[in-house]
Amino acid sequence: MTHFCKSTLAIFSALAIFSGSSTALVATNLSLEAYLEQVKSGNKSAQAAASMSQAGDLKAAERSAILSPTLFGTWLQSRDLKPTSNPTMMGSATDVDSMSYGVSQLTPFGMAAKLSLTTNHVVIEGASPQFLPLSDYYETRPQLEVTQSLWKNGFGRETRAQLDVVEGQALMGKHTENLKGKFLMAEAEVAYWRLALAREALAAQRESYQRAVKMRDWSAGRVKLSLADKADLLQSDAAVKGRELEMQVATDEEGAASRQFNSMRGNISDNVSENLARLTADAIEKMADPVRTEPREDVRVARQAETIAKAAATLAQEKYAPQIDLFATYAGNGRDAGAGNSGEDGLSFKHPTRQYGVKFNVPLGVPAVLDHRRGAAMEARASELVRERKEFDELREWDGLVDALGDARKRLDLGTNMEAIQKEKYDHEKGRQSKGRSTLFQVLMFEQDYAGAQLSRIRMKADYMRIIAQMKTFGGN
User: Fold this and answer.
1) Residues 254, 218: one domain?
2) What are the phi and psi torsion angles at 103 (to 5°)?
3) Residues 19, 144 share a domain
4) Cys staple from 422: which of 101, 167, 193, 453, with CB 3.0 to 4.6 Å?
C-alpha cells in the first residue's frame, strides 16, 4: 500500500508539473471583463437580448411615425356609358381622367387636417353644343379640411393614450430584454469566479493530500523501525484516503465549473486553457462596491405597464363617449377648356366653396358603458399598486444585498484569520510531534482543521462574489 500511495503521489506531482509547464507555454490570462465580452459575443441568448433591446428602442419611434404627415394620392380613369335621361343635354358617354393628391396629419391635440388638390379632365360625348357649350373641360379643386374633436378624443385625449400604449409596449420589451441581459451577465460573472475558486480549492486539496502522504510515509518509517504502533500507520493511511476522496470531489467541481464557464461563452469544450484572475485578499479589498444608479429594469417594466393600463383606461372612457366634432372645409374651384386656366382659377379661389358644421354621435347604452369604464379604471389602479410594490421590493432587495455584502465581508475576514490561526496551530503541533511531544492523531486532526479552514475561506469568497454580481444588476446599462 505504501508503494501504491507513493506512486500515486508521483503521478499527481508529474501531472502538476506537466500542467504547469504546458500552461506556461500556451495559456493566456483572461480577466473578468474580457470573459464577459466573450459571453456577450458568443452567447446566443446574450446576443438575442441585446438585439431585442435595440428593437424596442426602434419600435418606440412609432410614436413619432403616427403623428407624421401622410402623403396620399389617387389616379383613375372612367368611361360612363349608362343611358341618360336627356342625351341632348347630358350626352351619351362621359370620360373622366382624374388625379387627387395631398397631405394629411393627425395632431396630439385632437385636430385632423387634410390639404389636397384634385384635377379632372372631363369629356362628355353626344351632347348638343347648344345645350352644353363646354363638353370638354378641366376642373381644378384645391381643398383644406379641418376636424376638431370636442368630446370623444376631446383635444387629443384618445390620440395621446394610443401613443402611450404604442410607446409603452415597445419600452416594456426593451427593459425586459435589458434585465435578461443583466441577469445573464451576473450568471456569467458567478461562473467566472466559480471556476477560479474551484481551481483554488483543488490546489488546496492537493496540498492537503501531499501533507497527508508525507505524514503517512513518516509514520510508515517509524512503524518499520518499531518506533510506533501500526495503528498510527492505519490512521495515516485513512487520512490519505480521505484527502484523496476530497481531492476527487474538488476535481469534479472544477470540471463542472469549466463546463459552465465555457457554456456561458458558447464553447462546447470541457476544458478551459486560460488562466483566471486570482481572488486575493488585496484584490477584494480594492474592489469598489456596486452602486445603485437608477431603478432596475423590472421597476421600469412595471412603470410602463402602469402607463399602458392608464392609457387603456383613457381609451375605454373615450371609446363610448359622445362624439361631437367641429369641421370646416374651404375649397377653390376652377373649370375651363384649358388646363392652365382651370388651375389658375382654382388656386386663386375666385369661386370658393365653404362648409362648416357640427356632427355628433351619442351611444345610448349608458349602464354598460359606465361598467366598462369602471373596469378599466380598476385595472389602472391595480397596475399602480403593482408598480408601487415593485419599487418597494427593489429597494428592500437592494438594502438586503448591501447588508449581506457587509456580513459576507465580515465572515471573509474572520475566515481568513481563522485559516491563519489553524495553519499556525498545525505547524506548531507538527513541530511538537517531531519532538515526541504530540501524537500523530493530534497532528492529523489539526491538519484537517487547517484544510477545512482553507475551503471555508474559499466558499466565503464565492458567496461574496455572488452578492457582488447580484448587486451589479441594479447598476446602469
Assistant:
1) yes
2) -130, 135
3) no
4) 453
Q: Are 146 and 184 members of one domain? A: no
Distance CA 157, CA 169 (A): 18
pTM of the model: 0.78
Cell representation of residue 374: 369602471
List the CATH number of the domain containing 460: 1.20.1600.10
Give, for all 477 residues of the chain, the pLDDT tens digit.
Answer: 444 444 444 444 444 433 444 444 457 999 999 999 999 999 999 999 999 999 998 888 888 888 889 999 999 999 999 888 888 888 889 999 999 999 999 888 888 999 999 999 999 998 888 888 888 999 999 999 999 988 888 888 888 999 999 999 999 999 999 999 999 999 999 999 999 999 999 999 999 999 989 888 888 888 888 877 888 888 888 989 999 999 999 999 999 999 999 999 999 999 999 999 999 888 898 888 899 888 999 999 999 999 999 998 888 888 888 888 999 999 999 998 898 888 888 899 888 999 999 998 888 877 887 888 888 889 889 999 999 999 999 999 999 999 999 999 999 999 999 999 999 998 998 888 888 788 888 888 998 999 999 999 999 999 999 999 999 999 865
Task: Say which residues have a Cβ less than 8 Å from residue 1's Cβ, sequence separation at least 6.
Answer: 237
- Distance, in Å, from the CA atom of 166 to the CA atom of 456, rounded to the nearest integer, reads 53
Is residue 357 within 8 A of residue 150, CB to CB? The reply is: no
The whole-angstrom separation of Cα 140 and Cα 186 is 68
Nearest to residue 317, comparing CAs of 363, 386, 360?
363
